[in-house]
Amino acid sequence: MKIKRVKTFIKGLDKEMSGGVPEGSVILIAGKPGTMKSSLAFNILYHNANIEDVSGVYVTLEQSRESLLTNMDGLGMKLGGLEKEISVLDLGMIRKKLTQLTNQTWMEVFKMYIQNLKKNMDIKVVVIDSLPVLEVMARFQHPREELFHFFEWLRDMDVTAFLITEMQQGSDQFCKYDEDFLSDGIMHLDLKREGNQVNLFLGIVKMRQTSHKRGYSPLIFDKDGFEIVSD
Fold it and tell me: CA dist 131 to 38, 187, 199, Å?
């Protein structure tokens, strides 16, 4: 049976991954500060909406909706004309709703938003920026168990989820609570100093149901978008 896939729209990468990420996967986008994690995730959401007519939601928990869209606009990804395909939800909206629904937890309100978008827009792609902030806001008492159930909830929603996670400087650990084991895939963004330049690299550390290279490829971004440079 042929696996349906969601394109990343990173030139060269989809071809290496048999067309993209398997539909219904939960994928971590991991990297240290400054590795364009948010830009790459928005790129996936934006081009799936613009080219494939696939609706999605970007949940930004670290910056405002306006700040995110201003940054993406500067990278050539303008939301104008795609309001019916792309929803951007920020922490302020969730907090406002939480004060109105005093009998519900933060996570219950978060899930309610996603479920409503699924019902009204038939969203197929979800980006959460970032997973560590969601863990803090949700106040998990038993993180590993609750994250397992959260990942399963995303899969049951019939969406392909991209969860951004921040790696600490000097650390090679992707996560704190075994999120790397719970996920279906890991896209790792890394920086390397070469002379007077700092260059960006992308590696597919893990991707279930997919044949892929284990090494890292230079990742460039220009007016034509993201592209990996293969050997």
Answer: 12, 14, 25
**153 three-class SS:** helix
Query: The domain that contains 122 carries what CATH number?
Result: 3.40.50.300
What is the value of pTM for the model shown?
0.96
Distance CA 14, CA 202 (A): 13
Q: How many structural domains does the chain have?
A: 1
Write out pLDDT tens, residues 74-114: 999 999 999 999 999 999 999 988 888 878 999 999 999 99
CA distance 60 to 110: 12
How many angstroms separate the CA atoms of 117 and 138, rounded?
20
Question: What is the number of alpha carbons within 13 Å of residue 71 lying toward its C-beta?
Answer: 15
What secondary structure letter does DSSP report for 212?
Answer: -
**If we measure between CA atoms, which residue out of 180, 185, 218, 222 comes closest to residue 202?**
218
Write the pLDDT tens digit of every residue in 144-165. 999 999 999 999 999 999 999 9
